[in-house]
Design goal:
With 81 residues, the chain is α+β, with helices and mostly antiparallel strands. It has a domain at 6-45. It has helices at 18-23, 53-59, and strands at residues 6-8, 11-13, 32-37, 40-45. Strands 1-2 form a two-stranded antiparallel sheet. A two-stranded antiparallel sheet has the order 3-4. The longest helix is centred in the last third of the chain and has 7 residues, at 53-59. It starts with 5 loop residues before the first strand and ends in a 22-residue tail after the last helix.
Length: 81
């Protein structure tokens, strides 16, 4: 597949084929990783990592300080739904 470079300000830009954006669920504002290897330019889709509470808590430092009195603090916003 070929694409034509166009000037936009001081940069050159090119379009990304619709088939690629559809396949990878990309839209205006999506972030991608560009990798340059010699004369090769590769586009890699950034996938958001999915975390769960159990994994996040397991990765916390053991010496992480605990806030004392947390349970007694009065809500000030929409903490309670």
């Amino acid at each position: 597949m070929q694409s034509t470079l166009r000037r936009s300000g001081g940069s050159l830009v090119m379009t990304v084929p619709k088939a690629f954006t559809d396949q990878n669920h990309l839209q205006d504002g999506s972030k991608v990783e560009l990798m340059v290897e010699g004369e090769r330019l590769t586009i890699q889709v950034n996938r958001k990592s999915k975390y769960d509470l159990k994994t996040l808590l397991a990765e916390m430092p053991k010496a992480f300080p605990r806030v004392s009195g947390w349970e007694e603090i009065t809500p000030v916003g929409e903490e309670l739904l």
